[in-house]
Design brief:
The complex is a heterodimer of chains A (454) and B (201). Chain A has helices at 14-25, 48-56, 86-93, 123-128, 134-149, 168-174, 179-189, 202-219, 233-244, 364-367, 369-372, 413-427, 437-453, and strands spanning 4-10, 30-33, 45-46, 74-75, 81-82, 102-104, 107-112, 115-118, 224-227, 248-250, 255-261, 266-271, 274-283, 292-305, 319-323, 334-340, 351-358, 378-391, 400-402. Chain A is α/β, with parallel strands linked by helices and 454 residues long. In chain A, strands 1, 2, 10, 11, 12, 13 and 19 form a 7-stranded mixed β-sheet that branches. In chain A, strands 8-7-15-16-17-14-18 form a 7-stranded mixed β-sheet. Chain B contains 5 helices and 7 strands; from the N terminus they run E-H-E-E-H-E-H-E-H-E-H-E. Chain B is globular, with a radius of gyration of 17 Å. The chains are: A alpha/beta (454), B alpha/beta (201). Chain A: Belongs to the Rab GDI family.
Chain lengths: 454, 201
């Protein structure tokens, strides 16, 4: 193991695995280690025994009424994939889609006045949705048509405004949209966690609305897709990509020491008495407690249910509910993701609802009450509170590139933005999300091979 | 596709210790060649080949380990949903046979319930240095309901036969993977992935 690597990656969470894969495909020599004996770190999906042990320790076994442990693949960090979003672009860029199977999420809901409604996102839906009051229908329809037609580089579609300057708040006012409508546009379509976007230029929000609409248009039921067997498949798939392009994988590797050799400009990493060197380290925040800072807490509550949730369409085997902050007098949104055996994450008949939110009070679980009220009887509950951690420095000075922990958003856009930003800091170049030339080369070779055989 | 053959596609994974000849077996089967010094698996770890039976065509989507077996870091995703597995050992190495048995147990515990497992004692061309007796492996395979063959990727002995036996044993039912309603993730802009349908002639 006495070797030099371009990059050593520590931790096999999703972000680390995507970066490891991208760097290996680029031809970098990568060593990827994890102190745990399994892939995924915080982004792993657990079976019931693992989940139970995490909350209750080893002594007590999970009750048999929960069903077979191995039928469970429970995400610790619940998120859905926007089907036209950045993660899909990264999956295509690397051809990692071939290792995974996805299904569409059945429904997307937003909470309003104590009940949940399907999210209207097109001009026609705006007219029929019960969420939209009679007086709001016409202005909303006009606004949706404006957004649909908006093209960044075509001023004729900008309604005479400079939307890189005009705030979203001003744009909403121009269209005469009232608070309830603004609330669902900002939080259920543009997917903002809080209201700070209102004072930002309108362009970004419009692009996020278009992303939602594009994603919805792909598979029509909802804008989200989700992999069979849980999100824990994603880091494993990117790790496989990295391995295929020469990355070396080692699990169960505790890191004992990391020394910076200023003179030779290398970093020495020691694990189990063996030392390897590298130019750069990429890792999750847990590997450098002295180089990161806490920025708030996130609560995630995993609820096992014995049937579909009573507040939504009973036929739906998977869905998302967004609870906008103002609806429940909070400063940030709350999310509920519901999954079932349709995505191979639990036994038949069971449903998993995961509620997540940024912690705002000293009694975080009480904050989740409005979400719990939507779920019906809960058979078993696993509640976790975790810190949101960010690196203090950007890594360019010490060559240690640390990812941010996974935030409370319901999708992977911020996750991928962090990955793209890290990639740029690590390599000095932008990540271009078209299919990678090295992947194309391999695809072509495989194609030629098939033709020869014919 | 001018015959009326039904085509069934299956995911097949290779398992076994490093350097027992997993990649060589696949390359012999898919490309019909053998390299004395096959490099550790890099780059192409996803191959396809078809086997024609009487009235059906079986297309194998073959997953190689990408070297992740070296430090025992193969991810569960690798054999997830696999309908067939070839567990390979080197007939000159008892350790590799022990490791193969561990893989069989892992597949029985974590793999798909109806997975077809084949045990392959590879490097039959080097039988002079044999350490694992045919009868011993045969008996283990029978007791555990595995297909069993000794193979040589170098001489091609029993390689096609092994895949044909697996193809015969696989259930030919329309939905072979869990979770109906899966969606294809295709590029958003100019959707040309260059995937071609093919069948044997």
């Amino acid at each position: 193991m006495d070797e030099h690597y371009d990059v050593i990656v520590l931790g096999t969470g999703l972000k680390e695995c995507i970066i490891s894969g991208l760097l290996s495909v680029d031809g970098k020599k990568v060593l990827h280690m994890d102190r745990n004996g399994y892939y995924g770190g915080e982004s792993a999906s657990l079976n019931m025994n693992q989940l139970w042990e995490k909350s209750h320790g080893k002594e007590k076994k999970a009750p048999e009424t929960l069903g077979s442990s191995r039928d469970y693949n429970v995400d610790l960090i619940p998120k859905f994939i926007l089907s036209s979003g950045l993660l899909v672009k990264m999956l295509l860029h690397t051809d990692v889609t071939r290792y995974l199977d996805f299904k569409v999420v059945d429904g997307s809901y937003v909470y309003s006045s104590g009940k949940i409604n399907k999210v209207p996102s097109t001009d026609t839906e705006a007219l029929t949705s019960s969420l939209v009051g009679l007086l709001d229908k016409l202005p909303l329809r006009k606004f949706f048509i404006f957004v649909q037609n908006y093209e960044e580089n075509n001023p004729a579609t900008h309604d005479g405004l400079n939307l890189k300057i005009t705030t979203m708040d001003a744009l909403f006012k121009k269209y005469g949209l009232r608070e309830n409508i603004v609330d669902f546009i900002g939080h259920a379509l543009a997917l903002y966690l809080d209201d700070s976007y209102l004072q930002q230029p309108a362009h970004d929000t419009i692009m996020r609305m278009k992303l939602y609409a594009d994603s919805l248009a792909r598979y029509s039921k909802s804008p989200y897709i989700y992999p069979l067997y849980g999100l824990g498949e994603l880091p494993q798939a990117f790790a496989r990509l990295s391995a295929i392009y020469g990355g070396t994988y080692m699990l169960n590797k505790p890191i004992e020491n990391i020394v910076f050799d200023e003179e030779k400009k290398i970093i020495k990493v020691t694990s189990e008495g063996e030392t390897v060197t590298c130019d750069k380290i990429v890792c999750d925040p847990s590997y450098f407690p002295n180089k990161v800072q806490k920025k708030g807490k996130i609560i995630r509550s995993i609820c096992i249910l014995n049937g579909p949730i009573p507040s939504a369409d009973k036929k739906f085997e998977s869905l998302q509910i967004i609870i906008p902050q103002k609806q429940v007098k909070r400063q940030s949104d709350m999310y509920v993701g519901v999954m079932s055996s349709a995505h191979c994450v639990c036994p038949k008949g069971k449903y998993i609802a995961i509620v997540s939110a940024t912690v705002e009070t000293n009694e975080p679980e009480k904050e989740l009450a409005p979400a719990y009220a939507l779920l019906g009887p809960i058979q078993e509950k696993f509640v976790y509170i975790s810190d949101f951690i960010e690196p203090i420095a950007d890594g360019t000075a010490d060559n240690v590139f640390i990812s941010k922990s996974y935030d409370a958003t319901s999708h992977f856009e911020t996750t991928c933005e962090d990955v793209m930003d890290m990639y740029k800091r690590i390599t000095g170049k932008d990540l271009v999300l078209t299919v990678h030339p090295n992947i194309l080369k391999q695809q072509e070779e495989a194609g030629n091979q098939e033709q020869e055989e014919q | 596709m001018n015959n009326n053959n039904k085509i069934f596609q299956f995911k097949l994974v290779l398992l076994g210790e490093a350097a027992v000849g997993k990649s060589s077996l696949v390359l012999r089967f898919v490309r019909g060649h053998f390299l004395d010094y096959q490099e550790s698996t890099i780059g192409a770890a996803f191959l396809a080949q078809t086997v024609c039976l009487n009235d059906t065509t079986v297309k194998f989507e073959i997953w190689d380990t990408a070297g992740q077996e070296r430090y025992h870091t193969l991810a569960p995703m690798y054999y997830r949903g696999a309908q067939a597995a070839i567990v390979v050992y080197d007939i000159r190495s008892e350790d590799s046979f022990e490791r193969a048995i561990k893989w069989v147990k892992e597949l029985q515990r974590q793999g798909s319930p109806n997975i077809v497992i084949a045990l392959a004692g590879n490097k039959l061309d080097l039988a002079a240095k044999r350490k694992v007796e045919t009868a011993e492996a045969q008996q283990y395979a029978e007791e555990n309901g595995l297909l069993f063959m000794e193979t040589s990727a170098k001489t091609s002995q029993n390689v096609n036969e092994l895949f044909v036996e697996i193809a015969k044993k696989l259930p030919k039912t329309p939905t072979t993977r869990p979770g109906s309603g899966r969606v294809a993730i295709a590029p958003i802009d100019n959707g040309n992935t260059g995937k071609k349908n093919k069948c044997c002639n």
